[in-house]
Every structure is written in structure tokens, then in C-alpha cells.
Records
---
Amino acid sequence: MKGKFITVEGVEGVGKSTNVAFIYEFLRQREMPVIATREPGGTPFAEELRNILLRSRDEPVDDCAELLLMFAARSQHLNTVILPALQRGEWVLCDRFTDATFAYQGAGRGMSLDVIANLEAIVQQGLQPDLTIVLDLDVDIGLQRVRKRGQLDRFESQQLAFFKRVRKSYLDRMANAPERCFLVDASQPLELVQRDIIKLLERLL
């Protein structure tokens, strides 16, 4: 594979969408062949699964069912979009990937990390991002930003303790994969956040 695989992670309200768009334009300006995508989602079928996962509903969603739907969407996304793009030599920029599953379904929901790792091995066949940018922000501040945007989805409606577990998981995973995971302080002014992101991107260019 000649292309590079970049993922952007973080809890709600850290500015992922804004900075994914910034990274995409940064790479385009340097004439890098790049596509931007997201998880869950990225293909018509996976987007349908995303809608199922995010929609608020009266029926409680079983944690294992949620986890399996995440990996079903990921399998479709990988084999339909991500792997073909990398094999063509394109760069793939993804808003969340499997680190989010360990954080949200693992730490957040309390699902077995071994089970998640087994599903990861089955679906990804060893594929890992070349660079994971973790945008980090105090959970309270992030949730304040999210609430200002309007109606919350099923994940955004979780309790504060849930997101604190998610944030801790991201920090723990960074410590365990320092060769690919790098923290960017998302509490800084946007221009400083993006300055730090550029430094990380320049390592791959």
C-alpha cells in the first residue's frame, strides 16, 4: 500500500469536523491524492448503520449489538472505500476509527477489550492508521460546545461519567501506541491547534 491512513479522534466537542476539513485542504494544497471519510459510515450501507446507531430511541440498545453494528459498518467501509483507496496510492483521512470503539464501546460501555481486539483482528487483518491525531479537551467544555449545536444524538446524550471514561481510554491508548498516536490540545485557539496538526502531518510528507 502506497497511500497513508490518517485518523482523527476525540470526545464530543473537540473540533474533529473542523480539523478534518483543515487537514483535507492542507493535503490537497500539497497535491496529495486524498479522500475524507468518517466512521461509522463512509458508504451508503455503512451510513444506514450509522443512522441506526446514532438515532435516539425508546428501546434500550444492547451493548453487544451496538459493538457488532460498529464493526459491520467498519468492515463495509474498509473493503469498499479505505483499502481500495490506499491500494490506489491515495491518502485516507477518517473522522474516527477503531480507537473510538475501544474508547466508546470498551471504556464507555464496559465491553470486553479482548472481544473488541478479536473483532478488530477479524475485520482489519492487521491494518492500523499511519497517524492518529487525538484532539484532547476537558469533557465539560466539549459537552458545552455540543449542546450549543442543538439536538443531541444517542451518544451525545450519555452522562458525563461516560465521556470521562472515553477520554481516559483515548489517553491510555496513546500511551500504548506512541509511534502512531499523538495528542493535540484542543483547548488552544484554533490557529494553534492547526499549527500542531501541521507539525504532525509534516512527519508523513
Note: The two ends are 16 Å apart (CA to CA).
---
Amino acid sequence: MTITIYHNPNCGTSRNTLAMIRASGEEPVVVEYLEAGWSPDLLRALADQIGKPLKALIRDKGTPAADIGLLGEGVSDDDIIAAMVEHPIIVNRPIVVTPKGTALCRPSEAVFALLDHRPVRFVKEDGEVVEIAEGEVMTEGRLP
């Protein structure tokens, strides 16, 4: 299975998601988007694949999103994309693409719905233990 993770190594959620993918036995293509940047076409495609508007991919915490006016009403998709291209940190993370779908994996457990094989037990870097019983399925990024 080909898995791509748009990853920020400075983000704990992104690091946990990457570790969960690797714990499933897969080695993903890792795109460090702060270095690689974004293209408008890729941002539009990812938002479409996730099934959410571009505004839903804005990260406001620790970014200049509020300062440049992206959080208000009436901001166009073109303005959002231009800001994301100029300031890649504005894009929320991590975004994971697999043959099963594309998702913003926040919380990191949301990645389990995209994996063929998921670890039964995973310990996040902060010590939180995530255990998945046989047959449990992720719904909207949460365990039932």
C-alpha cells in the first residue's frame, strides 16, 4: 500500500501519526511540507479528497492565519490558497493519503481508518496508550 504523509516533524500529532503508520508495518512517503511547500493544485486536491472546504485545513494555533485575516468570514479559497503557499505552516497537519482515503489525522488515531493493518496497542510520545480491540473501527477520527 502506498501511503503519503504531509508531515511537520515539529508537531507531536504529526510525529505520532507517522509512528503509527510505521507501527502498522508500512513505510510511507514522507513529505516535509515546510521544506517542500505547497502548490495550489495539491491543496485543492487534498481538500476535495478529504471532503472539506479549504478553510477546514487552516491551522490557527502557532501560525500567522489570524494576523493575515484568514479566520474571518468571507475569505475566498484563492486567498486561503495564496496564504498557504506563502506560509506552509498554515496548513493543518498531518494529512495522510492512502488507497483507502485521505484525512487530516488530528487526532493521530484518525490514521487507523486509512491503514490495512493497524497496531493493537500504541504508546504516543507523551505516554498516552491507544489500544484497539479486535473489530473496532475508527469513526470521524475517534474510536467508538
Note: The first strand starts at residue 4 and ends at 7.
